[in-house]
Design brief:
The complex is a heterodimer of chains A (301) and B (346). Chain A has a domain at 36-45 and 73-217: Calycin beta-barrel core domain (Lipocalin, Beta Barrel), CATH 2.40.128.20. Chain A has four helices and 13 strands. Chain A has helices spanning 2-25, 61-68, 87-93, 280-284, and strands at 36-40, 98-104, 111-118, 123-128, 146-152, 155-161, 166-167, 174-175, 180-188, 191-199, 208-217, 258-259, 292-293. In chain A, β9 (180-188) and β10 form a beta hairpin. The longest helix of chain B has 27 residues, at 3-29. In chain B, the strands form two sheets. In chain B, strands 1-2-3-4-5-6-7 form a seven-stranded mixed sheet. Chain B has a five-stranded mixed sheet with strand order 8-9-10-11-12, with no helix packed on it. In chain B, α6 (238-251) runs antiparallel to α7. Classes of the chains: A alpha+beta (301), B alpha/beta (346). Chains A and B meet through α1, α2, β5 and β6 of A and α1, α6, α7 and α9 of B.
């Protein structure tokens, strides 16, 4: 009996060693390879869909005022016609194919960077995993910014600074050039989840968080180019700045008397931290519903 | 437990302990970052060199930004920084080039940009027509042990004074090489340099276009740290700033994906390109239009300020302290519109 127990303990100890060996065979700070072509899973943007709707955005007073002054002609300013979506917006906003290419250090075979490209307006992002110093605050900022990455378990955490100001939605709300964007990339089998958290001390009262899912690793995916050149025949005269004066916005979501097919009240369409949370739905039910329902043709993007 | 079992158990426990130690070490290395990672900023009182492109560098921290173009012909400085920063500026220039400083180009007469004129010019020398030891020529044809200072005529007039009057600035700080035409061309260091008169925050403002390098140094026409410092007394208004910004936008050509290409060195703050100049122009135009609308509705300056027409930009560009506050900016916008009440909104 004693002999059998001793054999059992030995077998258990050997089993632990085998498990440890298997564990050690993988890198301790497991690098997960995101390489490949990823097809996005389409999702709706937040809000009602009314042009100008700011619901779900944690905008502060400045962010709201900025958004309320926006007019569609802003996108017709010749110099802004080729302005790309930012990487974080493209992840959320629609059918944006994604490609990650790893850069491998020859001597160690460790991934030192991922180079990403989104087909939506050809945005690119380099995530450096070598902990290189961030550039000074005096260098030129870019649409994709500067990103460092590190793995937390099997999640790649990308932290981006040096971003040019750009839009959160294509009807006015902006993310400032003081924002930091943290994106958590997690591969789940053939799925890739991107959780984007935007911290903006200029236009937000709280971090704004969005999660998008890339559907499947598809080796046959095509990333088309997006050629663009400055427009010269837009409706906006060169040198002019189209905008709405305070209280004069004509966007449907900014009209207190107008609503959508769901009867969305006016107040939530102005955004704010409260409107991000499900609990706000109960409050929305107590708010007055505008009487004029906009037509289908008035519906936004 | 047999000796063999005890042996394997000890080995297994030791291995587990080692693994836990490694795991803990890795966890420590991968500690989450703060939400806003530290980014290097220029320390107060220090001058730092920011490479821009090719022969062009930007010096930051000496008051207004200074642009340095260095090559075989020597060094050109666009602006000279504040008077008390000359030694730091000169030390920074020396890290870029040991060639002589030949020119200082003032974008305006403001102290933050031209305060170092006198002391910095004395560090350099003009290109001589003849060697100093050549006795056959007059003094004027020999090299002068002082860099030449270029500005638009109005900037010179604001630093100097007619005979018998007290000049705001010492004579050594005055530009000795002025222009009063729309532009002055200056080939130097195999670079095509165009100095352009672009009235904006003052009526004597110049911008300097390094055409070969595709870099434009614009002085305080663009200030990435704050609202434009409009000097009403010196002929600046929100409208002249907007005209200057529109001129600058016309000159800039971004690369594919709407960025980089022509680089713009602002009077303060970081290096920018066309889209950020457009954002800055839009900010100025929107605030100007709101103030104009409020004037049209009969509001007083105090009422306009209380309505905060720049509220969406104040956290980014505004301040309530220092030499140029949000309130002073609104004062200047208002005063400029009062000077030109019939001006068209653009």
């Amino acid at each position: 009996m004693k002999q059998k127990r001793s054999t059992g303990v030995t077998a258990f100890a050997r089993g632990v060693l085998v498990l440890v060996g298997v564990t050690l065979a993988s890198p301790v700070s497991a690098q997960v390879d995101l390489a490949g072509l990823w097809r996005p899973l389409a999702r709706n943007q937040d809000g009602s869909g009314m042009d100008g709707d700011l619901a779900g955005l944690p905008l502060n007073e400045a962010g709201r005022q900025r958004a309320l002054s926006w007019v569609p002609e802003n996108f017709e300013v010749a110099e802004l016609v080729c302005r790309p979506h930012s990487f974080d917006y493209s992840i959320e906003a629609g059918p944006s194919q994604l490609r990650w290419v790893p850069e491998v250090e020859d001597s160690t075979q460790r991934i030192v960077a991922f180079h990403g490209r989104l087909s939506m307006r050809e945005q690119e992002s380099d995530i450096w995993l070598d902990n290189r110093p961030r550039p000074s605050d005096q260098v030129r900022y870019s649409w994709s910014g500067f990103s460092l990455g590190e793995f937390e378990g099997n999640t790649l955490v990308q932290t981006t600074t040096h971003l040019k100001e750009n839009y959160l939605r294509r009807w006015g709300p902006m993310r400032s050039d003081r924002a930091t964007v943290r994106t958590r990339w997690k591969r789940i089998g053939n799925y890739l989840r991107a959780t984007v958290i935007i911290y903006d001390p200029i236009y937000m009262d709280a971090p704004y968080l969005r999660t998008s899912l890339f559907w499947v690793n598809d080796p046959n995916l095509v990333l088309p180019p997006y050629p663009c050149e400055e427009a010269t025949g837009t409706v906006v005269e060169p040198g002019t700045v189209p905008h709405s004066l305070p209280g004069k916005s004509f966007l449907p979501a900014h009209d207190p008397n107008m609503t959508d097919a769901f009867g969305t009240p006016y107040e939530p369409r102005l955004g704010g931290v409260e409107t991000m949370y499900p609990e706000y739905i109960a409050k929305m039910k107590t708010l007055p519903r505008p009487k004029t329902v906009m037509g289908e043709g008035d519906r936004g993007q | 437990m047999s000796g063999t079992s005890r042996y394997w158990s000890v080995v297994a426990l030791a291995t587990c302990a080692l693994l836990m130690f490694i795991a803990e070490s890795v966890h420590t290395q991968n500690a989450p970052w703060a939400w806003a990672p530290p980014i290097h900023t220029i320390a107060r009182g220090k001058v730092e060199v920011v490479p821009v492109r090719g022969n062009v560098h930007m010096l930051v921290g000496a008051g207004g930004n200074i642009t340095i173009h260095a090559g075989n012909d020597g060094v050109i400085a666009v602006d000279a920084g504040a008077a008390d920063m000359t030694e730091q500026v000169w030390a920074a220039i020396q890290t870029i080039s040991r060639r002589p400083l030949r020119y200082i180009i003032n974008t305006s007469d403001r102290e933050d940009y031209s305060g170092g004129n006198e002391a910095l010019a004395l560090k350099g020398s003009t290109i001589p027509f003849r060697p100093a030891e050549d006795a056959r020529v007059s003094d004027g044809m020999r090299g002068i042990q002082k860099a030449s200072i270029i500005s638009y005529l109005t900037a010179f007039e604001r630093m100097s004074a007619p005979t018998g009057k007290v000049a705001p600035r010492a004579e050594g700080a005055w530009p000795d090489n002025t222009y009063s035409t729309p532009q002055k061309k200056l080939p130097f260091n195999e670079e095509s340099i165009v100095i352009m008169h672009v009235p904006s925050t003052t009526d004597g403002h110049s911008i300097v276009y390094f055409r070969t390098s595709d870099v434009i140094s614009v002085g305080d026409l663009v200030d990435m740290t704050g609202y434009p410092r409009i000097d009403i007394q010196a002929g600046g208004t929100a409208d002249t700033v907007l005209e200057g910004l529109n001129r600058l936008i016309e000159l800039t050509v971004p690369n594919r994906k709407s960025e980089a290409g022509t680089l713009v060195i602002p009077g303060r703050g970081r290096l920018v390109d066309q889209p950020e100049v457009v954002y800055y122009q839009q900010m100025v135009a929107i605030v100007r239009d709101r103030v104009k609308d409020m004037i049209g509705r009969g509001m007083t300056l105090e009422q306009i300020k209380a309505a905060r027409p720049s509220r969406d930009y104040d956290l980014r560009y505004g301040t309530n302290t220092g030499p140029w506050t949000t309130s002073m900016f609104i004062d200047a916008v208002y005063a400029g519109l009062a000077k030109n009440p019939g001006g068209e909104l653009r």
